[in-house]
Amino acid sequence: MRATTTLSVVLLAAAGIGHSVVAGLDADIARVDPFKDMKNRPRAGHGMNVLLVGTDGRDDITRAERRRYRLGGAPCHCTDTIMIVHISEDRERASVVSLPRDSYAETPPHTDRVTGKAHHGHPIRINSAYAEGGPQLTVRTVENMTHVKIDHYLEVDFTSFMKTVDVLGGVKVCTAQPLKDSYTGLDLAPGTYTLNGGQALQYVRSRHADASSDLGRMKRQQRFLAALVERATSSGVLLNPLRFRDVTRAVLGSVRADRGFGTDELLDLGRAMRTFSPSSSEFTTVPIGQMGYVVKGIGSTLKWDPVRAQRLFRALRDDEPLATGARPGGGAVRVDVAPQQIRVQVENGTRTAGLGRRVDAALAATGFRTTRQPVSAAAPTALRTVVAYDPRWDRSAKSLATALPGSELRAVKGLGATLKVIAGADFRQVRKVRAAHADQGEFGVVRGDEVGCS
Q: What range(s) does the Cell envelope-related transcriptional attenuator domain occupy (predicted)?
């Protein structure tokens, strides 16, 4: 969630907001030094790697909120969420890798900050590294396990998470299955919801909402992060300096970051990320080799798949996309986004009667979510079929254009989630396409525009 706040800042900078505004916001961030006296670190790769950590801190949450959102009990001072967020060197892609909190890990030599006992290294669950050695041991443990050099550290607790969601006016999530967790109080029937801060915290914390336990929770966290980015970038807050300042100041007072992540870094990143969109982000979880790996004195853990995990982290170091390209097969062309996830309005751009209905019906038969109400163009002179799309849905547009051989892609800012097909005189057929989810590589990657409610 802190990464989302950072993204808001850099997008504001990209929109032309002055250095003084960002500098003032930067001064509100609490600082930590997770890299102090660190030696023998992994070699630097390409791009930027941010360790995003969510802790269970709840000191500033009211008693009423604790009761309402089931936040009672003492915090364990451990990490509920650990993600590596990789920003590509060209600043055109973000890759988010979730590290399960119950992952089996071995700490490097350290001194336990609670007991004062010196350790030469011992087995733990990865989320316990924070309790034993704070941000520094967390970074060292992650670097030792992944061989990925961490460039920046960002930490958010329950309070700052709830503030972030509330000041943005809530975040929209959807579920096809009922989600009910008696531990957190989460209770959602199938449908679409706009969650406030407390409800959103229930959503991302729930481990007992289905049989997938913590792995299912991580996927919900990834979905929520994508939805939060979409909310932050589409709500208009980035284009209003005064509102942005008020919103961000309400959030930054309860987050922590390393000392090197300052104003200049935010501005440089912002200028480079002008074209960033939901489809530019990809999400996955480190490959698991063994569930229920029992360790004496610790209990059940998750053991990473050493071969596949090594390939995943090598891709991060080499600044490579984690998702593979689409491949044809099964009598249909594989595309990145399933037709069932793409909304389409058909417009007849010619004087040929019935062409709009024919195109609409053919797209619907292939699985696209057409309006079933094609319209006619005001000036019906289109010679070529056009796919008009909002740049934020560029991957959906490419998938739609694949189904319309010879069509032209045309970006239209502000068009929204519904794509428009302007049927031209060259229209001949709709090609059958299907999602390439099964071919998104061994890492099970999904992209930001695939996990939203649209």
A: 79-233
